[in-house]
Amino acid sequence: MSSTRSLLDELGSFEKGGFFDLGHPLLNRIAESFVKAAGIGAIQAVSREAYFVAVESASGDTGGIAPPKVGGAKKNRSRLSGLRGETNRNSVEALVMSTGKESLQWGIAAGMYSGLTYGLKEARGVHDWKNSALAGAITGAALGLTSEDHSHEQVVQCAITGAAISTAANLLTGIF
What we know:
The chain has 176 residues and is mainly α. 69% of the residues lie in helices and 0% in strands. The protein is built from 5 helices and no strands. The protein has helices spanning 7-16, 25-59, 88-124, 129-146, 152-172. The chain is globular. The termini are far apart.
């Protein structure tokens, strides 16, 4: 009997146990959360850029539409200055850099949140809204620190938002 597995078998095992076996459940959870969220961040960044390029080309605007950035700088500038380069190579490089940065931010936030909730559950012996609130606050503050031109107020706002969203998600888990 052959020991080869099909792609469908591999994808099925991902839902059951995941792709990673780093020797500890905490490390496995952080790695899986990082990879999943980084992929989502990359898709989001590329689709957002495709949307704005389509809007600009439809309207004939060449000045650049600045999308709202969560926790981003308030400066009025083009969203990706490199995308206005003179060659396609400059545009592709700017898109790859932007997508990589956003993927990394999404991945780090997801890995951090997942690791914190797991660690707090292990330390306290229970998974409740308090773990979610603390993990969300710490992750939100860290995300606020990674934004451009961050301020004390912005970091606090991101921490409060992270705590509120993760607590609400924890409390609503059983309802929906």
